[in-house]
């Protein structure tokens, strides 16, 4: 499992891009994690699934509402990562009004989540392999803080914890 001080594992995430530009076409675009984190401070939070109750009512809205405070504290980007496809993450981003605040990054096959060692098996609930709920502050590709939730909890991966850690 990833830990504080580790470099993020190599991998790719997808993001549904609404407006063409900067070499990105409209629709799903694939991004190399190493390139995207190089020289940046990124607040990453991950959750079990798009449109699920805690994720939609608390986790994403908290980061959207506090995005300006995180950026004022030196965070370059905020990523929401989930084991969903880029189309679902794009639709969820529109629903949650994340544009310009939180990048909705899809790990459709859970490859990056597996590389992090942070999977959650929800097969018995019909959801397959998902991500544990967690947050981490990443600086130039290196994990500076890591907050992993206990099963069924939402106490340490919230935006309030992240704001304390970037201050």
Q: Give the helix/strand class.
A: alpha+beta
Q: Could you say which overall geometry the principal axes of the C-alpha atoms support?
A: globular
Q: What is the chain-wise order of helices and strands? A: EEHEHHEHEHEEEEH
Report the mean per-residue pLDDT as an integer. 94
What is the CATH superfamily label?
Glutaredoxin
Count of alpha/pi helices: 6
Radius of gyration of CA atoms, rounded to a whole number: 14 Å
Q: Kindly give the count of domains.
A: 1
GO cellular component, one term: cytoplasm
Organism: Piscinibacter terrae
Function: Thiol-specific peroxidase that catalyzes the reduction of hydrogen peroxide and organic hydroperoxides to water and alcohols, respectively. Plays a role in cell protection against oxidative stress by detoxifying peroxides.
InterPro entries: PRX5-like, Redoxin, Thioredoxin-like_sf, Thioredoxin_domain
């Amino acid at each position: 499992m990833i830990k504080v001080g580790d470099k993020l594992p190599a991998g790719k995430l997808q993001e549904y891009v609404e407006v063409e530009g900067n070499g990105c076409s409209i629709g799903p675009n694939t991004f190399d994690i190493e390139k995207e984190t190089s020289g940046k401070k990124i607040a990453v939070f991950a959750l079990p699934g798009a449109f699920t109750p805690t994720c939609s009512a608390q986790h994403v809205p908290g980061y959207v509402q506090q995005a300006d405070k995180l950026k004022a504290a030196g965070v370059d980007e905020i990523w929401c990562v989930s084991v969903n496809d880029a189309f679902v993450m794009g639709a969820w981003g529109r629903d949650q009004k994340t544009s310009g605040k939180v990048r909705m990054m899809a790990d459709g096959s859970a490859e990056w989540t597996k590389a992090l060692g942070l999977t959650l098996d929800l097969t018995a609930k019909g959801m397959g392999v998902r991500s544990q709920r967690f947050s981490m502050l990443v600086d130039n590709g290196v994990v500076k803080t890591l907050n992993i939730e206990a099963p069924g909890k939402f106490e340490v991966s919230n935006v309030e914890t992240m704001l304390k850690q970037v201050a």
